[in-house]
Amino acid sequence: MTHSLNYGRRQFLQYSAFGAAAALFPELLQANPKSARSSPTPGFKPDVEIEFSAREVFVPILNNGSKTKVQKYFAKLLKGPENTVQSFEDNYLGPTLSFAKGQKVRIYFNNNLFEPSIMHWHGLHVPQKSDGHPMYSIEPGERFVYEYEVMNNAGTSFYHSHAHQLTASQVYFGLAGLLKVTDEEEKALGLPTGEYDLPLVIQDKRFNSNSQLQYVHGMHDRMMGFLGDTILVNGKPNAEFSVKSRAYRFRALNGSSSRIYKLGWDDGTPLTAIGTDVSLLEKPETKPYIMLAPGDRIDLWLDFSGRSVGSKLVMYSLPYSGVMPPMFERMHRGRGRQGGMGMMGGMDMMTSDLAPGDKFPIAIFNVTEKVSDSPKLPVQLARRQRLTEKDVDNADSPLPIAITERHMRPLVNGRPFSLDEVMEIEKVKLGSIKKIKIFHPHEEHPQHEMSSQTNKNDNMEGMNHGGMGGGMGMGMMDDMGGGMGMMMAMAHPIHLHGQQFQVLSRKEGHVNKEDYETVRHGFVDSGLKDTVLVMPGEEVEIIKPFQDFKGLFLYHCHNLEHEDLGMMRNFYVH
Ligand code: C2O
Ligand code: CU
Ligand code: CU
Prior knowledge:
The protein contains 13 helices and 32 strands. By secondary structure, the protein is mainly beta. A 7-stranded mixed beta sheet has the order 12-11-10-14-19-16-17, with no helix packed on it. A 6-stranded mixed beta sheet has the order 23-22-25-30-27-28, with no helix packed on it. The chain has a 5-stranded mixed beta sheet with strand order 3-4-9-8-6. The longest helix has 8 residues, at about 325-335. The radius of gyration is 23 Å and the shape is globular. Residues about 1-25, about 335-350 and about 445-485 have low confidence and may be disordered. The structure holds CU-O-CU linkage and copper (II) ion (CU) (2 copies). CU-O-CU linkage binds near residues 122, 295, 554 and 558.
């Protein structure tokens, strides 16, 4: 099988009420009643218990004496080790959570916002009911109870809002925080801890003249993803770290809506990674630079040993190109020329002072103290058994995740998001290990071929669902045929809920070679992942286990505007 998605065979399980849903997904039944999710399970004995709330507050972000309105997570540790919750005052970021593998965790989430919300534990392998699926979004004043065992190995993750159609804005306005998992294997490695183990949460925001956050303005921001012009690290602009002349662990998280960072030192010193998405690597990997897409984490080993006091190192996002259609990249580079936009005329677009792929500093590291000893970089990190094609039951017919960008609306597998509708190709047997192919169908296939796979009533592009078409002459763009696919192609960070996956292969497609050269060496694909950046035209094959939990588990683009536009679907594990 190449790219035949077999949409004719798909089966829609559509319902609006839980009654009908429960017949098809009995697991949902227990999750439905308010009582079941607003009160703890009597038999569940938590090691860690945390009371979370989210509310609007004003915090100082810019160093100009003013405060910015944000949405913020607050947490109170009710039970468990003292270091489990580390809160930050004067910051919009939620507390950093430190969990240990094997801990049983119960979390109460109180929604004190003025809109629905729900929390998601990105990268954690937890039951559906505790995964923060948008169908569980709760109203202001309501409470949701999560209960899960930490099954993940040591690594870095985060939690964030996954509210139905409000994810992007709530994360942008502050609803996210770092989450660390540790385990015995990690402890034995002697990696830097305490003051030598630091977060590097990177986000881009935009502020108005009153120091208030500005979010998307119009269609372009939504379609391409929001880009800010102010880079914040750990919630603050112009980040500087005072470091000693020794090794550090920096846990980098891209918590931005859509901006992709190409992390690197200015002087060409390579970067060493020791972990990816909630997982240590088997061996450290040294790269000239590292691509960090929204939702991605990378644990960096930054060694300042031998640097003299007074030296200053600048971590940059280095230049790259090709993650956005050329015409949009050009527009972003035409900074300051808002409004005069040729074929995009009429769309309210904000050009960013930081175009995608521009070079800009992320953080400055000042070496302020000489110390004589430093931990050594371990040669071997985590011991893992790598899954191979032999472990999957569908080596010849990978499950498809087709990325489509037609009609100015990005989708996965040609259907817009539905809280609970599942296609045949999205049903997966519990316990199976699957090969999944993420690809851009309309770039490899001229448009007419794509349509011939699609029957008329079941247009896979979801024309009937497209509320996004107004004013853009969709029909015209469509008529431009296969070329339009290429023209609109952009990079998408694809995230799958549930268990971590492995990247099996990456095949570059019809992408501009020169562009691809600017990113090629920046993928750390050797570790376990939950988010993978797929470049325009690229085909990425992954291996993913679907073990332990039945139910609906999301897969989606972690460009958060894309996610809210419906570039998200469910796998149904049964
Ligand atoms: Cu980080 Cu479904 O999300
Ligand atoms: Cu997630
Ligand atoms: Cu996307």
